Amino acid sequence: MKQQPKYLFPDDYMADPSAHVFEGRLYIYPSHDWESGKPENDNGDHFDMKDYHVFSMESVDGEVIHHGEILRVEDVPWAGRQLWDSDVAHKNGQYFLYFSMKDKTDIFRIGVAISDRPSGPFKPLGNPMDGSYSIDPCIFEDADNQYYMYFGGIWGGQLQYYRNNKLNADVNLPLFHEQALSPKVARLSDDMLSMAEEPRDVLILDETGQPLKQGDTERRFFEASWMHIYQGKYYFSYSTGDTHLLCYAVGDNPYGPFTYQGVILTPVVGWTTHHSIVQFQDKWWLFYHDCVPSDGKTWLRSMKVVELEYDDNGHIKTIEGKQV
Ligand code: FUB
């Protein structure tokens, strides 16, 4: 029988869950929401998170183990504020936590922290990754054991202030009829600590092969990149932000281009929507969050899981975000 949505950790507010199978267990790396009292605005100041925690499960039906705190703002030498979405990758017995945080000048960068266990704690490097910017790192290991980092987010995620990977005081969001801003992807170096190449645009195309436009707000990229492979195809999924949808696009390789396919999750209760997709014990799972337990406070989100299904053509069946 299909698994219904369930909350994973009712004791505290956790969001942006990145799920991976490590050492035969399912590990979840969320953001840790709390009531900071910061005003709500389009820069996302109300998402003022100051630490990360990690969770694991032996099975999706089983007990959720809380392994505790794994990294705090004050542990990071270059820290400014706001620990936003993170992800973890495993290579050669080491675990690498990639995290979004503003530096001391209030610019979002991507940091790396290392542990020899998936449950942490993680020790941060002294500086953010060279050339990193914006938010929401997703680390994808391809079948040939190369690792790729997808990242980016507009509005509070600051992606609109960059062109050709450079901060540019003269730019902002494209106009309605112009090509949408693309998320970014770069292959990682062998030691996992830097990008082995300049970040490239992840192009998302419509059904005629044209890049999506900025005004196509129900399909264009906003934030929350995720990548998985299903039946040999590369599924790039993301949030449309201000239209509150989780969508996906399919391509033939990790760089794309990707052709838009449809909606994975309709709007949840709350402003943001953010997810990960993982295969575990012969089923596919969507990890996500909503704000039902906090009565709709968008900065106090709770992580959930629901089974994700494909049809015979490899299309993801749309899930209703507001089901209980
Ligand atoms: O949790 C802070 C930010 O909210 C994430 O980085 C975004 O993707 C959105 O979920």
TrEMBL record:
Source domain of life: Bacteria
Annotated SUPFAM superfamilies: Arabinanase/levansucrase/invertase
Family matches, as Gene3D superfamilies: Glycosyl hydrolase domain, family 43
Record InterPro entries: Glyco_hydro_43 (IPR006710), Glyco_hydro_beta-prop_sf (IPR023296), Glycosyl_Hydrlase_43_Enz (IPR052176)
PANTHER family recorded: ENDO-1,4-BETA-XYLANASE, PUTATIVE (AFU_ORTHOLOGUE AFUA_2G04480)-RELATED
Family (UniProt): Belongs to the glycosyl hydrolase 43 family.
Pfam assignment, any one: Glyco_hydro_43
Keywords, comma-separated and alphabetical: Carbohydrate metabolism, Glycosidase, Hydrolase, Polysaccharide degradation, Xylan degradation
GO molecular function, one term: hydrolase activity
Full protein name: Glycoside hydrolase family 43 protein
